[in-house]
Design brief:
Aldehyde Dehydrogenase, Chain A, domain 1; Aldehyde Dehydrogenase, Chain A, domain 2; 7-stranded mixed β-sheet; 6-stranded mixed β-sheet; about 20% strand; binds nicotinamide-adenine-dinucleotide; binds manganese (II) ion
Length: about 500
């Protein structure tokens, strides 16, 4: 065990001390084949523990359990206020076990404890927000104009069994988002975490059991995307798939979900623009641009990876941003001084560094960052915060999602040009603007073809505010009332009163 793990939460240490099982129909089980997969600590490359390698048969069992809990089980009969109470209880348990969950996240995914310590509160807030919704999902009475004495009303009903597939870059909160709204609206769930980061989801499964959710309402199957994930998306008894991950896999999921016309919602990749005008509060703009890209070491779907800077301040801004990266302390997430953790895997590190090379071949200039040669970071998958200048929007580093701590600076002359350039991408997830001119701020906010825009800030999220993407960044919105719509069917009921 590496020295930094000495500070590991006692219960987290206990949790990883045994091979983990997965949750199907209220029981903790091995995979049918008894196969397992290892999960590693990205700060050291060391194996943390193993989880079941769930396959087709395990997915079948989990879907059958979720189906039964939805069709016949107590879940369908349960009153909304009872569902709310369970979600509120789960929120309390997440807070009570907050440090353990945060440490499991740091261990499995690498995000610093400095950051993951805020996740339990965010998770509990999410469960409480949707607990509030459980009793407030209403239909309408509709004044239809057809002849006769007709009463028409709508009901919002749960969709059924939801297959929830999540990525490795934010395993804790992604699992929470994929449980809160569907459970509040009365659906049952089969959750498949990413194979690189299964631990927090499994611990959440224990808390779901402790809170008292009936068996089969929440099932968690660990396993690969290609086998377990595909089996879930192709399963005829699954009514909806909610997926967060890459655009490439999102397309694949739309295809396989078409088998039984599943409802599909997708949160996919991004190549978000962060736009800095010369009139901006300069220091704030530097800090926002840095937060936008370096949060989670750039492994964020909303990462502001294309930085558009007004020409007259471009050179100074790029070199000051490069300087600013020296504030980031790269290291093991369990070190309290660390504010930038490792990337998730050796493969991810290679891929990110390869993009830095591609950028140089395309004629861009690396101002700071790239590979790390520090001895105390050996074994982990570290990449230094990287600032690249002299980029144009057509280069591969400006068009492809790098998913690492790499920001590409592009100069612009005026507002119409920058809105056009910012929209020249297949993605449409996030966007940032720094300006003190309120009309510029609104013009850019309205002009960007993206699901989120942040002005003089970046990365803000709240369970009450919808989140999602335009274009190839996704389908549907999570959070707010939009999630309620996404997890319900609308039924129109006609009554002849004559
Ligand atoms: P990924 O697409 O490789 O995997 C995501 C999940 O899908 C994993 O659980 C994986 O096992 C599973 N999966 C893989 N292939 C599958 C298949 N054929 N059928 C069913 N499931 C399959 O993504 P990743 O590498 O884990 O995550 C990074 C990507 O996720 C980035 O593109 C990032 O932008 C995106 N992301 C988007 C958001 C958002 O909200 N828009 C949030 C986080 C991450
Ligand atoms: Mn891991």
């Amino acid at each position: 065990m590496s020295t930094t793990l000495i500070s590991l939460n006692r219960k987290a240490a206990e949790f990883i001390s045994t091979p983990k099982k997965m949750l199907i129909n209220g029981r903790w089980v091995e995979s049918v084949t008894n196969e397992t997969i290892e999960t590693r600590n990205p700060a050291t490359g060391e194996i943390i523990t193993t989880v079941p390698n769930g396959g087709v048969e395990d997915i079948n069992l989990a879907v059958a359990a979720a189906r039964k809990a939805f069709d016949d089980g107590p879940w369908r009969m349960m009153k909304p206020n009872e569902r709310a109470k369970l979600l509120l209880k789960l929120a309390d348990l997440v807070e009570e076990n907050g440090e353990e969950l945060a440490h499991l996240e740091t261990l499995d995914n690498g995000a610093p404890v400095n950051v993951t310590k805020y996740y339990p509160t965010a998770a509990a807030d999410d469960f409480r927000y949707y607990a509030g919704w459980a009793t407030k999902v209403t239909g309408q009475t509709i004044p239809v104009s057809i002849p006769g004495d007709i009463f028409n009303y709508t009901r919002k009903e749960a969709i059924g069994v939801c297959g929830q597939i999540i990525p490795w870059n934010g395993p804790f909160l992604m699992a929470v988002w994929k449980l809160s709204a569907p459970l509040a609206t009365g659906n049952t769930v089969v959750l498949k975490p990413a194979s690189l980061t299964p631990l927090v989801a499994l611990r959440l499964g224990e808390l779901v059991q402790e809170a008292g959710f009936p068996d089969g309402v929440v099932n968690i199957v660990t396993g690969s995307g290609s086998i377990a994930g595909t089996a879930l998306t192709e399963h005829p008894d699954v009514d909806k798939i909610a997926f967060t991950g890459s655009t490439e896999v999102g397309r694949q999921i739309m295809r396989s979900s078409s088998i039984n016309v599943k409802k599909v919602s997708l949160e996919l990749g991004g190549k978000s623009a962060h736009i800095v005008f010369a009139d901006a509060n300069y220091d704030q703009a530097i800090a926002n641009a840095a937060t936008g890209i370096f949060t989670n070491s750039g492994q964020a779907c909303v990462a502001g990876s294309r930085l558009f800077v007004e020409k007259k301040i471009y050179d100074n801004f790029m070199s000051d941003l490069a300087d600013y990266t020296k504030n980031f302390k790269l290291g093991d997430g369990f070190d309290q001084a660390t504010n930038l953790g490792p990337l998730i895997s050796a493969q991810q590190k290679d891929s990110v560094l390869n993009y830095v090379d591609i950028g140089q071949q395309e004629g861009a200039e690396v101002l700071i960052g790239g590979n790390t040669s520090e001895r105390d970071l050996e074994g982990g998958y570290y990449v230094k915060p990287t600032v690249i200048a002299n980029v144009n929007n057509n280069m591969r580093i400006a068009q492809e999602e790098i998913f690492g701590p790499v920001i590409s600076g592009i100069p612009f002359e005026d507002i119409d040009e920058v809105i056009k350039l910012a929209n020249q991408t297949e993605y449409g997830l996030g966007g940032g603007v720094n300006t003190t001119d309120v009309s510029k701020a609104h013009r850019v906010a309205h002009g960007l073809r993206t699901g989120n825009v942040w002005v003089n800030t970046y990365n803000l999220l709240d369970p009450a505010s919808p989140f999602g993407g335009y274009k190839q960044s996704g389908l549907g919105r999570e959070h707010g009332s939009e999630s309620i719509d996404m997890y319900t069917e609308t039924k129109s009921v006609w009554i002849n009163l004559d």
